[in-house]
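The instructor's notes for this session suggest beginning with a concrete chain rather than abstract definitions. Hand out the sequence below and ask the class to guess, before any prediction is shown, which regions might be ordered.
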Amino acid sequence: MKRFFLFLCATAVCMATAVQAQQRKADKETAQWRYELQAAVGQAAQGSAMVRVWTYSSKPTIAEGQAGKNAVHGIIFKGYPNSTDGTRIIGREPLINDPAVEDANVEYFNNFFKTGGAYQRYVSYIGNGVPDQQIKVGKEWKVGITVIVLVDQLRKRLEEDGIIKELGVEGKLPTLMVVPSAQWCNKNGYMQTFDNQGQTESVPDYQKALLNSSELSQAINAINARMANRGFPLKDLEATLKTLKSESAEDAMLTSKAGAAITESPIDILRRTAKADIWIEIDWNTTTIKGGSQKTLTFSMNALDAYTDMSVAGVSPSTSPAEYTSNFQMPLMIEAAVQGQFDPFCSSLKSYFDRLAKQGRAIKLRVLTWDDFDEDGLMAEFDGDELHDIIEDWVAANTVNGKFGSPDLSPSGNRMTIEQVCIPLQNEKGRELDARSWARNLQKHLKNNYSIESNLSTKGLGQAQLIIGGK
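After discussion, reveal the predicted structure:
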């Protein structure tokens, strides 16, 4: 009996030693990071990626055990391209594009990817890790296994550990609002008209679109969830529309008592009410194919500066739209459509807003005079200086680095326009500035120092108009 017990102990030790030796060999092979990532067919939850990882190893069993490590490593450092096998699955950029990051954090990643390390919290296996395919390549094996990687959770871990910089660490993130594009509204019949000084113009009717399109709400919520997960503050389109609905028509449209009005479109009014820095316009198209058993989805989004309408970032539709089963789930399809471009998109938004913080936000200032103000208009003198020079000096002192476009003064002197007026994002009290709040200070300056009355009106967030001589 004693001999049998000793035999069992010896056998257990040998087996443990063999397992340890195999694991050491596996770790040694994995340390070379010899693998390939490929987009896999199937649906992963929002914030996740389904991939097939091809691992090279001298033994198939070793490759099977290391597939999870390779998949997580690939999501972090390599990414994977769009599929080329007819499945039309969009690829993904790596979480870290700079190889120097891995070299600078060798100890961190050695611990992260060690056997039983933190990497395993962010990967799960499809079909219990059974290989999809095993291919003999020379003296080794190429083993394919499909896995799901929790990409958003992985990114958050790397941010918390200081490996990836959080978007909001330096400075403030822009406030966003997601809306359907004008092209999408037009092709789906969600447009409205308004009178722009005698000319009829058409703009999107967001209220009608939200009431009639269930896909729109799903699409907006999907993008809102992704942006919120990255820390961006959001304004909700539907909630802002409800705020507008409670306002009277007289409050919604601004006019001056002399009829010199800035006509605001419904979109201008919505922007002024929402006060979002960036509008993300989304557009998509779904087509039923193969007798209704599948659909194709093409999706794009474009970020616009709400003050200037300038495009600052975008996600382009794939050249070949992805095909999905008839069990179409809009949020998951959008996740698949944007996954390869989402990180660069967010980084572009942050970089643009960082530039605004340093260089100022561009607005437009118009200054006019009433007919009965002074016959010399803006060329009238106050304390020895002409009024247009007084205004220009104030603008120079209240813009970032004194930066603004050349003033355009009409020959009659009753009108001046200044483009590209670069105002700070915040005032000295830390409160946000838009065209109205900034121009309000000019209005106070003229009244307090020169007893000049004026009327202030705005168009959207980025244009202010001051009419001298009345209020």
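Then share the key points. The two ends are 108 Å apart (CA to CA). The chain has three domains: 26-160, 176-356, 360-468.
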